Amino acid sequence: MKRPLMYVDLGGAAAVAATLAMVVLLGVLPVLRLRAEHADRAVLLSNYTEQIMAVEAEIGALRERIAHTAEEIESRQLTLLPPKQLNTRIAGIIESAGAMGLDVLAIEPGELQHDEYYDRVPITLSLTGPLPQFVRYLHAMRSESSDLIVRRFEIEARAGGGIRADLLTDWLTRAD
């Protein structure tokens, strides 16, 4: 028996609709999903690229700071004299104090002490003179005598003006 044409058309339309649904489900939706994932990954890649560029800029700035610090350290390097030049160093201390208008009452070196990277000789120094000259002497000692460290000092006023200063210093020497 022959089916009516309407049933054939409905069956064909259903088959076409089923085929179209299969194409959409199996072909188009995965492509759309992959495009969405690709867009998400492109955003992530862009964010990571910006972060990498920021870190690289920070690294560049840090390298410049390291180079500047290394240059500064190099310019501040101090060549320490050997301990056997103690008398020369004491003569220099007396000469610089005299040049500042101070009188050296006493200067007494202590025993050589060993530290990890350098040796040091304690030097006790007693001076008299005007306070402004003593202050200038301390400033000069700090800027010009990097190998001489003032550990402690005491100042007392003297009758008739001026001061007496007692200093305990460490002269840094090369560890031999």
Architecture overview:
Strands 1, 2, 3, 4 and 5 form a 5-stranded antiparallel beta sheet that branches. The model has no long low-confidence stretch (mean pLDDT 87). The protein is rod-shaped. By secondary structure, it is α+β, with helices and mostly antiparallel strands. The chain has helices at residues 5-76, 86-99, 131-144; strands spanning 103-109, 113-114, 119-129, 148-157, 163-173. It has 2 domains: 1-77; 83-173, Ribosomal protein S6/Translation elongation factor EF1B (Alpha-Beta Plaits). The relative contact order is 0.11.
Summarize the structure.
This protein is 57% helix and 23% strand. The chain has 3 helices and 5 strands; from the N terminus they run H-H-E-E-E-H-E-E.
Please give the structural blueprint.
Blueprint: H1 5-76, H2 86-99, E1 103-109, E2 113-114, E3 119-129, H3 131-144, E4 148-157, E5 163-173
Features:
176 residues; alpha+beta; Alpha-Beta Plaits; 2 domains; five-stranded antiparallel β-sheet
Rounded Rg: 43 Å
- Total domain count: 2
**Count of DSSP-assigned helices:** 3
CATH topology of the largest domain: Alpha-Beta Plaits
Q: What is the top-level CATH class of the largest domain? A: Alpha Beta
Largest sheet: 5 strands, antiparallel
User: How far is the first residue's CA from the last residue's CA?
Assistant: 120 Å
